[in-house]
Amino acid sequence: MCGIVGYLGPAQAAPVLLSELRCLEYRGYDSAGVAVIEDGQLSVMKAAGKLSNLEALLLTKKPAATVGIGHTRWATHGVPNDQNAHPHMDSTGTIAVVHNGIIENHEELREDLIKKGYVFNSETDTEVVAHLVSYEYKVDQDLLQAILRSVAKLQGAYALGIVCQRHPDKIYAVNRHYSLAIGLGEHESFLASDSMAVRQYTNKILKLEQSEVAEISASGARLFDFDGKEVFRKPVSMESNPYIIDKGGYKHFLLKEIHEQPLVLRKTIGKYMSHANKPVNFVVTHNGDETPSYGLNFTDEEIKAFERIHIVACGTAYHAGLVGKYLLEDLCSIPVDVEIASEIRGRRMLVNEKTLTIAVSQSGETADTIAALTEAKLRGSYTLGITNRPDSHLGQITPNLIVTECGIEVSVAATKTYVAQLTSFYLLAIYLAEVRGAVTPERALQLKTTLNTIPMLQERILAKEVEIRKSSLKYAEAHDVVFIGRGLNFPTALEGALKLKELSYIHASGYAAGELKHGPIAVLDANVPVVTVVVPGVVYEKTLSNAQEARARNAQMIAVAVEGDEQVAKMFDTVFTIPAVEELFSPLLTVLPMQLMSYYIADYLGKDVDQPRNLAKSVTVE
Ligand code: G6P
Q1: Residue 149: pLDDT above 90?
Q2: What is the DSSP letter of 288?
Q3: Residue (of 2, 194, 207, 213) closest to 102 by Cα position
Q4: How far apart are CA 495 and CA 485, in angstroms?
Q5: What pLDDT, in 10s, does the model give residues 267-324?
Q6: Is 617 assigned a catalytic role?
Q7: Does 2 qualify as catalytic in the annotation?
Q8: Atom 1, ligand 1: residue with shortest CA distance
Q9: Any atom of ligand 1 within 6 Å of the Cβ of 611
Q10: Is residue 268 helix, strand or coil?
Q11: Residue 161's beta-bridge partner residues?
């Protein structure tokens, strides 16, 4: 679970590899390393910790090589230290491997290779690949064949980059159920786990399909299936989308991204809804092209025939899915299940040709989410992806995509992509409800009009940032924080707790407010802040009663509530206010004070808010 890069051409490889790695640091930042071939000699340079450590090392070593591979790691097998950092070499020191994913049968292979005399230097599953390729290479000195024979023995889902000192004019790449992109420039080639990293150099992209090996040279790339049969595919020209690393004057990317939310919503809404009195339109074309670039390809008859909706996602995207359930059930009268994608593995997935399965994934690369959607597709379900990256793995496996307009989200903790995913669910629910005749035209118009006002209401919350910061810091020393909410704002409570944990490392839990009395209330005392999301609507009174239960245990009382709510003002020590809005739309607002609260507490505590410890933005292992 990591990022892989490569470069081969006339330029010095190290700066290119570093620049590509910078784009992939969101995939992990436990360690980074490169392997380059210079004057016929393979050398590996690697360092535990952030990419800046590798950068410093390369500044001292100054490799002049023009070919190399690189890696940024999120540790799965073996602690994050120099030894376990990639690239890994074979025993002869002539082959180097970088790896993303998991080799499931690595222990068995390791034992076998140890018996054959190979000596292991790390705890990683990756090292078996280096030794295995080396072993196979001895047979006929044909690196491509050695890789193909090795791949036949590897189990799991993975992507690999391989270089060999005896073949300094080639890089080999292997893709098994992952994403790998080759960028083809003028007499130079690039490799990366994410096309975004190569797009800074070229827009001619060749994506590896699910079981393919590429032999990359400076003049191009040859593709082979796992049986060694050559595959011919033309590169595609990708829209230029430079990766801009710019904090725009903010102290952290996270704060900038929180502030970008109104803009992101305007763009996402505007893309799919030209006017409140027009139907939502999910078909998107580019450059005046007649053929849709992406969109929803369901007929009205198919939409009317959906009997169930199944949502799969992980992390923050799962919380967006929970809000999606409320919206779709309420507006479209379709039963909806939401599942944590990793929980579906090994279970019977009860979907069929009358089910629509929706995968929500900012990156479109989360392995568990991809696996769940693939399984649903195999079982005959209709599929749909909500993502920020149409060029991702998710974009490859479903023809139906809703693409959020967030730009790149650099900070590991999701903020703007969460509200954009929520917005996608509002648009989808309105669209399906209209097609199914589940809402009157008047109600549809009202919903769309309200959705259009949300960015402006968000701006009003962000304008109170100084006040939110001041109030938040009163709770910076807490060891435990409880978040509660009901109905549509139960997911907000979960997301609030997740944000605080991720950013500040303070233990936090989110609960359905009605569940507090069934156990969690035992943890409450005067040292525990309880954040209650309580906005006018069907669950307002009941949520207030649940908050009273917390108050009776002397908990520190914080509310997220609408402006001017006097009942709330009397009962809570701190109130973060949002403008009044129909309850159905409140999750688009209530989460904002929680994001700011988490940010300011984490920053006050001196935490690395953009790259919190142990996390990765895109988790490509199951
Ligand atoms: C990681 C990130 C989370 C994110 C989750 C799902 O755990 O740290 O912020 O919500 O993956 O990512 P996805 O790209 O599928 O939305």
Answers
A1: yes
A2: T
A3: 2
A4: 11
A5: 999 999 989 988 899 887 765 555 556 789 899 999 999 999 999 999 999 999 999 9
A6: yes
A7: yes
A8: 617
A9: no
A10: helix
A11: 98, 173
